[in-house]
Amino acid sequence: MFIEERHQEIAKLIEQNGKILISEITKKYGISDESARRDLRILEQKGMCKRTHGGAIKLQQVGVRPPVDRSFEKMPVYDNYRAIAREAAKHIRENDIIYLTSGSLGYIMLDFLPKDIHYTIVVNSVDIGKELRAFDNADVYIAGGKMRQSGSLVDSLATEFVSRMHFDICFITGAGLTTAFGLSNGTDETAAFQRTVIGNSRKRVLLMPSAKVGTDAFIKVCEADVFDTVITDWNSAEDQIAALEEKGIEVVVVEE
Q1: pTM
Q2: Do both 20 and 140 map to the same domain?
């Protein structure tokens, strides 16, 4: 089989399955790990996939948004998301003023938020706010504004609400992160809201699963090096991690 034919087959498998592992390529084609990585590097350069630590995944569309009828209670919780959420919660200190993302990682973090110290937490999700009613050790503020069907609030009223606050630490998520384009997201409303929170925060922590590292979404939020810390998972490509670290960002890679 010619190399070009192998590349076509690998690209087809990624398109069909959403991902491929280095071990699958080496077994199927009888080539070395290095050759398999080189194949994926070439396919990535052609815009046909995005490499991860252990293989590659299908590229997301730039304009992809989360489902409007998102249900936190019914969504699957992946191991890497849970590990990132657990690590993020370790950054919370007594008496901190915290902004917690309205994304799925914010909801998952509820399982790991400290229960033995007092702090203040600001959210822009009615679903997360409802769950926080059970936290008698935390003062909770919910940003006001027009509620999306997803339960989040990111319009101009919500942005005005958080513009009057200052945070010790913010936990932000997004749809894409690259050193060239920075943090990006799906809508201008979300990006404007996040810029305000980030600008009013002393410490900025970005929670980015590997599938979103090395990917650009529609609207730029800010430069990557605005963040003090990026928490990602074991599948993030090493060159992407290195590029972030070269920007002076602390990159925490959670273990499987």
Answers
A1: 0.85
A2: no
**How many C-beta neighbours within 10 Å does residue 115 have?**
10
3-state SS class at 117: coil
Q: List own/partner pairs for 40-45 with CB under 8 A and 24 or more apart.
A: 40/10, 42/7, 43/7, 43/10, 43/11, 43/14
What does the alpha-carbon distance between residue 136 and residue 116 come to, in Å, rounded to a whole number? 10
> Strand 119-123 to strand 176-178: parallel, antiparallel, or no bridges (unpaired)?
unpaired
Q: How far apart are CA 181 and CA 200, in angstroms?
A: 21
In residues, how long is the chain? Answer: 256
Asked if residue 87 and residue 52 are part of one domain, the reply reads no
Tens digit of each residue's pLDDT (9 = 90 or more) over 33-77? 999 999 999 998 888 888 888 898 888 766 555 555 567 777 788
Residue 95, amino acid: N
Query: How many domains does the chain contain in total?
Result: 2
